[in-house]
Amino acid sequence: MKKKILYIITKSNWGGAQRYVFDLATHLPKDQFEPVVAFGGTGEAGATAGILQEKLNAAGIRTIFISSLTRDVSWTKEFLVWRDLTRLMRAERPDIVHLNSSKVAAWGAFVAFMIGVPRVVFTVHGWPFKEYRNFLATFLIKEISWFTALLSDATIVVSKGDEKIGKRLLGLKAKIQYVPLGIEMPEFLSCDAASEIISPTADAWPRIVTIAELTPNKGISFAIDAIALLKERAINIDYYIVGEGEERVRLFKVAEKSGVSDRVHFLGFVPDAARYLKAFDIFLLPSLKEGMPYVLFESIAAGLPIVTTRVVDVIFLGTMQGISPVDPADATQIADAIEKLLKDGTTSVPAHEQFPFPLSRTLKETIDLYTTAPTISVSSRA
Fold it and tell me: Rounded distance, CA 317 to CA 193, Å?
């Protein structure tokens, strides 16, 4: 008999957590599992569902839109989220609830525990208490994250750094499971074909690219500041930002104020953006907080050298070729790393014969957590 898995995620735009849910739901063995995906809206207002729903429906996966589920927090809305999640789980009667993103995970774990869902899995896409916040907010978010993991039968982390943090939390050592992310190899366009689509009239300058949701955690303002520093050093480059998000207007202003609006190009959301990576010379990830982003795997597969902050997985930084790690929130280090790559003539990284991040591994290890006996915990069922 098939096991029904109810995936729940806060937002239905297209980012790393959404891709994670999509990849799992669409690659489960169809003879063993019945996936259903529930989600909120695309942003703070959360009025309508987004790209995740479109992709899932096209793949034949049933979806459920929860209109009350948004990123912003208020007591009225939180009561509605609790009510709607309770109704959802009672109606669907899932064998497994798999929670993604900290906002919905807290309520989801509590509701699943109260109504007796047999198994609850929680994936941490970067512990939220690692973000830059005041002491009280950090403390409260850490306590909520701990409580969510405590109520879950297994908590998946996607980086070794987050595994280390999780295992230090009281009572969670046996629950924390490191499951590395993986991808299917993208089908890249050639450099010429991708360039013709992305920037057919651009100057013949080196091209730097960031693909990310435009949120404060991505640190893109520091990347723009780095471009300004490079301009002061008479180093000519074009910087392309692929993605949409709440920071778009502010980042436009940062580029204008820094005097590099002619060198910083906002391309907006680009479907299957990884296909175009060969049009660029360097991939830049200036994040302030991360789990383990897919786009770094794609950049490796495309043969691009990478400048990234040290917030990504330590295993990734220590084992992969062509990685230039820098401290977060440091425009000078970003500029120095880019300048060095350009001066050294590092324009490509040798492709690995065996790509070390297969989706098949992620899928197998996650399914193992769906089917193994629950850990002894407050959420274990008799």
Answer: 31
Q: How far apart are CA 138 and CA 129, in angstroms?
A: 5
Q: Residue 380's pLDDT is what? A: 43
- Containing 266, the helix (H) or strand (E) segment is strand 264-268
Q: What is the assigned CATH class of domain 191-344?
A: alpha beta
**Residues in contact with 320: Cβ distance below 8 Å, sequence separation at least 6, in sequence order:** 300
Ramachandran angles phi, psi of 164, nearest 5°: -60, -45
Global confidence as pTM: 0.88
Walking along the chain (382 residues) 10 residues at a time, the average pLDDT comes out as: 96 92 98 97 67 96 94 76 97 98 92 97 93 89 96 96 95 96 93 87 84 95 98 97 95 98 95 94 94 90 93 79 92 97 75 73 97 56 40
Gap between the Cα atoms of 339 and 298, Å rounded: 23
HSE-CB for 63 with a 13 A CA cutoff: 27
Token pair of 15, please?
A: 């980012």
Which ranges in the chain are annotated with CATH 3.40.50.2000? 3-182+359-371, 191-344
Instruction: Name the residue among 295, 317, 320, 322 with its Cα closest to residue 306.
Output: 322
Please give the pLDDT value at position 322.
84
Q: In the prediction, which pLDDT does 379 show? A: 43
276 DSSP 8-state letter: G
**Structure tokens that stand for 351 in this block:** 């492709």
Chain centroid to Cα 226, Å, comes to 24
* Positive or negative torsion for Cα 369, 374, 379, 382: positive
3-182+359-371 is a CATH 3.40.50.960 domain: no
DSSP code of residue 358: B
pLDDT of residue 353: 52
How many whole angstroms separate alpha carbon 106 and alpha carbon 69? Answer: 12
pLDDT of residue 43: 62
Please check whether residue 153 is in contact with residue 122, taking contact to mean a CB–CB distance below 8 angstroms: no
* pLDDT at residue 321 in the model: 77
Give the closest residue to 101 by CA, choosing from 4, 217, 185, 211. 217
